[in-house]
Amino acid sequence: MALGKNYEGQDCSLAKALEVVGERWTLLVIRDAMYGVRRYGDFLAHLDIPRAVLSQRLTALVAAGILDKRRYQESPPREEYVLTPMGRELWVPLLALAQWGGRHLAEAGPCRLFFHQTCGTLLDQVSFCSHCGVRVPVEDAEVRPGPGLKGVRGDQVSRALEEPHQMLDLIP
Amino acid sequence: MALGKNYEGQDCSLAKALEVVGERWTLLVIRDAMYGVRRYGDFLAHLDIPRAVLSQRLTALVAAGILDKRRYQESPPREEYVLTPMGRELWVPLLALAQWGGRHLAEAGPCRLFFHQTCGTLLDQVSFCSHCGVRVPVEDAEVRPGPGLKGVRGDQVSRALEEPHQMLDLIP
DNA sequence: CTAGCACGGTTCATTCAATGAACTAAAGTG
DNA sequence: CACTTTAGTTCATTGAATGAACCGTGCTAG
Predict the structure, then answer these.
(1) Which residues in chain A touch residue B22, judged by CB atoms under 8 angstroms apart?
(2) How many beta-carbon contacts under 8 Å exist across A and B?
(3) Which of A5, A50, A13 is nearest to A28 (CA)?
């Protein structure tokens, strides 16, 4: 692969994690799954990822136990990819990385902000709600557009995310 | 590059972060820098990374403001790479990812454990010390070998990390 | 003063993955 | 029956990763 194999000699939990989620595109696929993207075509439209790469990544993530592929309708048979509990736990490092990027790399501020859904508090320190004093799992969080959002993408998913949206909830 | 460019269309802080730290090897280089690795040769020995890739990554990280390259001795002139404050903040997502890997991918348990240096409390929930109620920055943390550590690597850095070691402190 | 060595790289041929366009296949729709 | 939607696969091309060899600087031992 391009990123992910051959870290075996590393004797390190981080290396093990990167073997599974460290390849190009993989974390963005997982991010989209957290936004509620579930279908091949929606990932494709939102990520501008080559089809072959998307197929490979989805298959690998299913094999790793991060995504679950399941039929959501017969006739025509259609499958969706949803995060497993293990996949949902990636919320913590993912949010931390996004917040780091928002602080240091986004001139105009973060593109998206995350809130504790039950109390409305902004999550700015990892996934910890300073108001409630609890760690907020993905399912209790809400995304809203942030100051840095340009809104240049025209796809379905991007448009849906211009509105506040509960994490994991299916994109229209 | 192989991972990192071309996420520009993404309008997302996570994508921006991955443009800088999402390439193969990059996060492992930063991890080593947090362990106190500073010299080209030590990164090389500990990571088993091709020399050309290491050069490229170090240069890119300096350009991104994550590492600082500075002379630590004249005659012979030698440079070291140390984390900037911005780089040190990657501690949060890095630790979160390592903990996720330790929970889900390490049969024998995590290879390394991290402790709040001032009180000795294990950091198991991101970088938050449950005893002191504070967020622990890298410089206040200590690494110790965990149950999953096999200790198969013979290089200087690996051997040094078989002992408790304060983060960021220079490896012997 | 010269041979060797440590360190920090660069160069280059080969391998392997990413890219993107085209094609396939199953099923439903008009 | 033609056409569309969805979810892929195939394939030629590009580009990065790999690993071995080489380079240059400045110490150090004989």
Answers:
(1) 24, 27
(2) 166
(3) A50
Asked if B51 CB < 7 A from strand C, the reply is: yes
As a whole number of angstroms, the distance between CA B88 and CA B91 comes to 6
pTM of the model: 0.93
b/e code A6-43 from CB counts within 10 Å (16+ = b):
ebeebbbbbbbbbbbbbbbbbbbbbbbbbbbbbbbebb
Beta bridge partner(s), residue A70: A80
Q: Is the CB of B76 under 7 A from strand D?
A: yes
Question: B5 pLDDT exceeds 60?
Answer: no
What the block records as the tokens of A55 is 């197929």
Per-position DSSP letters for A18-67, written without gaps between them: HHHH-STTHHHHHHHHHHT--SHHHHHHHHT--HHHHHHHHHHHHHTTSE
The answer, for B18 touching chain A at a CB cutoff of 8 Å, is yes
CA distance A71 to chain B (A): 26
Backbone angles phi, psi at A22, to 5 degrees: -90, -5
Distance B51 CA to D21 C1' (A): 12
Predicted confidence band at B162 (pLDDT cuts at 50, 70, 90)?
Answer: very high
Report the largest interatomic distance among the alpha carbons of chain B, rounded to a whole angstrom: 48
Pick from B14, B101, B128: CB nearest A13:
B101
Mean pLDDT (chain A, rounded): 92
